[in-house]
Amino acid sequence: MHVFFSKHSSARARLQVAAASVAMLAACGGGSDNHGVLLVLLPGAPAAQPESPPPTPVVTVQKACGNLNGQTVAGASLTAVMIPATKTMAMHCRVSGTIPPALNFQIALPEVWNGKLYYQGGGGYNGTILPLQPQVLSQGYAMVASDSGHQANALSADFALTDTFAAQLFGSLSVPTVMSTTTEALTLSYGAQPTKSYFEGCSNGGREALMAVQRSPNLFDGVIARAPAYNWVGFMGAFNRNARALAAPGGTFTAAKTALLSKHVRDACDGLDGIVDGVVSNQAACTPALINVAALRCAGGTDSGDSCLSDAQLDVVTSWTTEATFTGSATFRNAGWNLTGNEDNPGAWRAWVTGDGNLAGAQQFLFQDTTVKNYLARDRSTNSLTYAPWDQNQNALYAMAALNDATNADIRPFLNSGGKLILWHGGSDSALSVKSTAEYYATLRTSVGAAATEASTRFYVAPGVNHCSGGPGADSSDLLAALDQWVTRSAAPSTLLAEKRDTEGTVVFARPLCQYPKYPRYTGLINDAAGPKSAASYICTS
Ligand SMILES: [Ca+2]
Prior knowledge:
Elements: H1 11-27, E1 37-38, E2 58-59, H2 61-68, E3 72-73, E4 76-77, E5 79-83, E6 92-99, E7 103-109, E8 116-120, H3 134-137, E9 142-146, H4 158-162, H5 164-190, E10 196-202, H6 204-215, E11 222-226, H7 232-247, H8 255-269, H9 288-291, H10 311-321, E12 324-325, E13 333-334, H11 346-354, H12 363-376, H13 394-404, H14 412-416, E14 420-426, H15 434-448, H16 450-456, E15 457-462, H17 479-489, E16 496-501, E17 507-513, E18 519-522, E19 538-541
């Protein structure tokens, strides 16, 4: 059941909305316009509770939509149309607009507004508005997303070479700009600002999340940063190093070589978490000494087939697993990646690192290549694999960091204003390293103190999960519900639930989603078909 106000909305907000609704109704012809009013009572609430305010009239989505269509808000002309329900998306009002010169955004108004706003972050170098999430809309959130100010493929940074303002919007300005317009639009449509505003994003959207926390600390009540690309300089530099190792003579990783490496890691580490399930959940115990990659070396170091790795291929593994540091700043670094045993998952090394031998098809190569061309060399004819050293143009490096890096761990302004932060990272992420997020979290704890860290932040790692989603692990958790409970009811999240669903949405198995550095350890029966699928068969431990 949808309710316009949760029991925990502030009285001040209720009064503001009630007054504004009355004003709006008056403007529309007064209280006789009952078609425009939907009374919704709290579920199970007594009808006459003395301390409760009277039920508040709600602006219907049709009326809210009509209030916006054709209006100009912050220089943006709005088009608002009702979208009928489909199999996958509930009925809603879709509001489209462009903040001049070229920042396109879309707002979705749900059938019954819960009074809260959900800002959905982007991905890669943005350039398009990502599809809105049906499950968030169906919970009654008003949603907003943007293309961050330019229109292009998410793998292209061409905008950064030619359009300084687009580069600033991408880096940090698009979110506060769109928020300002969205808040104004919601006020126009409902006569009320949102009671709570949340941001959630993954990958570059996770970077946008941390950027908002660091540079716009009063913008959101709660933020979910998943697999955040918070360190643009460090990540792109590490991508470049990995790509160069793969491009070196003999460095190519075919599917068979990746499978060889993955099985070697699983053989060493899969069972360390109490169950051989194809996922190394106890990553901390899976040490380099235990894995012993050197055991895979071809005799003499020269490639002699699919059952061993050449010295050049071992150099790729070294580039992957070791930290990378670059000249100019202590933040110009990357922690390196874990060997997880899931490198051979289709969404892992093939997609991001090796291209199964076609390096130019791997996304790490593509991202570092467009970054070198447009931010660093500032010349699109530059070959990113021979652009060395990668950190040669210090001015360009500083400029990119100033635009894109969200490495500031002193987030006290956000925490002191009551903000809550949830970090999440897939344990088998082959794009952005979970070790980097762990590093940021450790620095955050040092910067704000253990007490504030415990009181207002959480960090979850989902073992066996690829970049943002996918992989053999349980990749689905309701972080938004956890955040909302935390913000509105002061119910701090602890262990959460992670599920693996099939394409029909049916739960295949579940795990506890543990707070880092804890991991889910199997405590159920051995040789039990059902036990491993149930979250109750695991405990979070470290
Ligand atoms: Ca395991």
